[in-house]
Each structure stands twice: as C-alpha cells, then as structure tokens.
Design goal:
257 residues; single chain; two-stranded antiparallel sheet; 9-stranded mixed β-sheet; alpha/beta
Length: 257
C-alpha cells in the first residue's frame, strides 16, 4: 500500500504565531518535523500542507515539498484532506504528523502505517503507558482506553479508567498523588494514519456530540462507527505550543546529545 505523510502547518497561532518557522537549534521547527518524517521506511512521500506563503517558501528553501491550502480550515485533519484532493495522487494511507512536533521519530510513523495492515482498522494511532502520576489528572493529557485487540473504546481528558476501589471519594489529583500511576493508564500520542476514504468521510462529517464536549476530534470517528486501532509505544513527542515549550525542547536536545 502506498503511504504519504502530510504535515499540517499554519502560521496563525493564538499562543505562538509563526511557530513552524521558529528556530530550534538554528533550524525551523517545520524542517525538523519534515526531515524526521523523511526517515520513515514505510512512507513514500512527505508533504507540508500550509496556508502561509512564508511556510511554503521555507519548506521549498530546504528542498521540501509543500502545497498551499485554504486559510479557513478549523483542524489539521481538514487541511490534510484538502491537500490530498489537490495532489490528485493515489495514496492508500495518509499519515497526519503535526507540524509542531520536532521530535517525531520515524519509527512512530512506520508503526501507525503498519497498524492498517489489519483490514478491520479504519484509523491507526499510538498510546504510551503513563509513568508520571501527574499526567493522569492533567486534562491536557488525553487518556485512551482500548480493548484486548487494541481497538479504542474511548478517549478522554478525564482520568480513565477510574480505579473505583482505590480512588473512591477522592479528587483525581489527590487519588493519583497518593497511589501513583497505574499500569493500565495510557496517554494518547497524537499521530494518526487514515485510509484515504476514511479521511474524506471523517472530514465530511459535522463535529459530534462527544467531540464537542471533550474537544477531541477522534471521538467523531468513534461516534460514527469508525474503528481506531492503537499500538503501544515507548516513544513520545513534545509539541511546541509556546515559546517556553521551544526552550524546554532545546534544553532537552542539548542534554540528550
């Protein structure tokens, strides 16, 4: 099956305008994402989908491929769907790699592509066991619950599964601080693989009830009967949402070399 990585990258950002072009170790964030994605063994192509001439020109300057998309998209998934339509190429699997995750590993891309070797799966994504107890109670860390075969049952900002016998009568933060992380608590890593028809179907649907409550787009897929299969990973990425995030990542890179 033919696979492509599409990296949605918009210039406007409430907390950090222009973050795809922000320098990280002297190289724009988007270039880190692009070059790490190129190292995937299973993806045949890497493309940046953007609404910014500045980002388009930056990608072109380092030899990357970019496509201009509308400024009206409310999500990266919508931007990716437009890019695939504009390209008019025959791809079986499309991988969504966020343009603000410079630490993405090629093995993570290969993993989500290979998930769709299972014909029953519509979408592939990754999860990682939570080791830091504070993340269980953190609503910014999305938790995933899945069945014995790896199919997602639910995604939530809440601490799930809730350990009733241990945490009964406690606030989430207190319960977790007292008992620590549980081996069955997993966080969602926001990289996706879609079958082409599923991507187009998903982006044609209106936001769903649970999606609007939790502000999690993947719940739209579950509510409409699409099967999301997860794979466990020991890797994770760190997104750049603020200038402070960029500083933390740079320090992490400096200490890890």
């Amino acid at each position: 099956m033919s696979s492509v990585v599409v990296i949605p990258a918009r210039y406007a950002s409430t907390r950090f305008p222009g973050k795809p072009l922000a320098p990280l170790k002297g190289i724009p964030v988007i270039e880190h994402v692009y070059r790490n994605s190129l190292r995937s063994k299973q993806a045949g192509e890497v493309i940046v989908a953007t609404d910014s001439d500045l980002i388009f020109d930056a990608v072109s300057s380092f030899g990357g491929t970019a496509v201009m998309t509308s400024t009206d998209h409310v999500s990266g998934t919508d931007r990716i769907a437009e890019a695939i339509r504009l390209l008019s190429r025959e791809y079986d699997i499309i991988v969504n790699v966020q343009g603000d995750e410079p630490l993405i590993e090629p093995g993570m891309i290969d993993a989500v592509i290979s998930i769709l070797d299972d014909d029953r799966a519509s979408i592939g994504t990754l999860v990682k066991r939570i080791g830091n107890p504070e993340e269980i109670a953190d609503p910014n860390v999305v938790k995933a619950v899945f069945d014995e075969q790896g199919y997602a049952l639910y995604f939530s900002r809440a601490p799930v599964p809730w350990h009733r016998d241990e945490w009964q009568g406690s606030t989430a933060a207190f319960a977790v601080s007292r008992t620590g992380a549980r081996p069955d608590c997993y966080k969602h890593i926001g990289i996706y693989s879609y079958r082409k028809d599923i991507l187009f179907r998903l982006t044609s649907l209106a936001p769903s009830r649970l999606e609007q409550i939790e502000k999690l787009e993947q719940l739209r897929a579950l509510e409409h009967g699409m099967r999301i299969k997860v794979r466990k990973t020991d890797s994770e990425t760190f997104g750049v949402d603020t200038p402070e995030d960029l500083e933390r990542i740079e320090k992490w890179l400096n200490t890890s070399l």
